[in-house]
Amino acid sequence: MRHSLALLALLSTAAPALAQLVLPGAVAPTPEGAPSIAAPASPAPGAKPKPRRRPADPAANSEPGTAATPAKVLPATTLAGQTLYRDGHGSEISFEARDKGLVVSHLTLTGKADDGADCRIDVTDLPLTVRDEGQPDGMARIGIPVPACPISFDVLDGAALETGDRAACSFAATRCKVDPSGLWGPPAASLTPERDKAIERQRTQAEAAVRAGYKRLMKTTKLRSALMGYAHEQAQFSSTREEMCRGYAAEVKHGFCATRVTEARAAALRVKADIGQAEKDARKHKGGAKRS
Question: pLDDT tens, 253-265?
């Protein structure tokens, strides 16, 4: 009898504990006095789930982690107070700001005489007033009216890219031939290790901008001949840049010339893509007008 009473007492004490057992798929009861937690609402029958928003990708056409940031269009006046050297040595040009404009205050051109000896031309008719020639390739372009050798520059960051496609200039009086084409920039000695790191980052951004601009340009037309021309020009760019920059002083060390030339290429592609997109939109608008 004593054993039966003890067993009954034990079972009555364990009953509340057994009631807390939660079976798979069941919802656990809320303890008394605790706030209730609502179960997530199920979507209504036939309702479409809301699509997840994806963050905007400003560099969709660039490498992961690399923003396709094009170089800024710099005004000609940013050259004021600078002395630039063709290929970082040799011919040199100095700019000054005067009367809210830009002038050339010093210009020396180096070249080769008919017998192969080095020669130089010191331009004396100074200062030369710089002409504004717009932005045909996406960068500010300036013209310098040098007698017997007019020069055109695209203004870059701490550099100027001579855009003439002429043959070398010839000065008859001294029998000196001068080629001003290529990149004019700072001497290698001024490019410190800290600046080298900045140049490397700029080159990465410029190359990403070139790739993005090229892809955008290729989307502006379906004409096979145009696409082949764009592809050939893009493939040719690396060798053109190499040929242009191989003579720049200590280029292997700092890559300054390659960086600035790549920035110029990105700017030119941006202009071409803008023109191509405008022509594409015009064709689309014209086609829509005919159908209506």
Answer: 999 999 999 999 9
